[in-house]
Amino acid sequence: MGKIVTRTVAIAGAVALTLAVAGTASVAVGHHNKVTKPTLTAWASLPAGTFVPGSEPSGSLVTGNTNGFVAPFADQPIQGFSGIAANGDGTFDVLSDNGYGNQANSGDFLLRVQRLAPVFASNQVDVVGGLNLTDPNGFVPWKLTRADRVLTGSDFDVESIVKAKDGSYWIGDEFGPYLLHFDRGGRLLAAPAPLDGVIAPETAARTGVTATLGGSKGFEGMAASPDGRYLYPLLEGTVTGDTAGQLRFNEFDLRTRAYTGKRWTYQLDSPAHAIGDAIAVDKDRFLIIERDNGQGATAVNKKIYLAQKRSDGTLSKKLVVDLMNIANPRKLGGFGTTFTFPFQTIEDVVILDEKTIAVLNDNNFPFSSGRTAGVADNNEWITIALPESLRPDKRVLR
């Protein structure tokens, strides 16, 4: 999957630059020997201090430990990485989330889909484009942060993404929680679609309706059926009245633009855990990232499960990868023979071929420091060879 790309970079504390380079977008698939345990096959990194050149200042309300970065920032950071969609040409659309951690401090963070290309030969990630999310036609019925209707991290907390066959985007939000449908230019196409009976604190504060979900516990993951008809948004938190650690996995019909009433439940290993992403393997099976809240030395449970629909309305789960115990016989990235992914939030998984997946972290710029204490995390991009085939539906490999 080789092609010439344009790399957009910025140096920490410096002005953002756009450099034309002969980069090669490459995805590490189909070139590994048979492995007996999950094995690192490629590693790349996008520096924490990477910004959208010539954009807008951001971070004016950021406080706390910024790990050496001085806020506000002259431009919009290319960070977050809370969902990923493959484009089939070696590039990927990656979703930046709500900004700086909460609604109150993220009004100058522009919600954005970044287009990226990993270049594993040089351990780099090229930024080849992106688009801001907007609501020019006024589909959001309440007051937005900006009069120009460019969406910000105070309007929505976007955490999951599916790219439809027509190039439009379905995005899962945590402030509703809502499903949001954008065209290929990032323009909202319809009013936000709520989930009956599930109310996040941000919506409760705006409407006066009682919250039934914890803060930042909305649609963290979202899968699409291989035939493109259904979405399966997965809540990150437990709805009031449900069993602790039990997460609702609902079915949304794209033909009727409504929930079907079918749902399954995913049981976390611990109620203190959270999910990071959910994607389809086929019509009945899904990869789900489950994680604890630790980073660095306190990171223990960072796992990817294969979940399957069951007739009793639950999802079974089978461990696919322990992200804290990945074989690295070639010592890729300068790491040892056992590679760990010790980040607080790991929110992106994509299937590259039947035995290879890619995983990315959300670096929560500039706050997370899981790789090195006191140093803002980069966005790392890894590919992992699996000992057994996932037997995916071929349509998920487009």
Automatic annotation (TrEMBL):
What would be one Pfam family of this protein?
A: Phytase-like
In what residue span(s) does the Phytase-like domain sit? 76-365
Keyword DNA damage in annotation? no
Keyword Signal tagged: yes
**Quick one: signal sequence residues?**
1-27
Keywords (alphabetical) are: Signal
Q: What is this protein called?
A: Phytase-like domain-containing protein
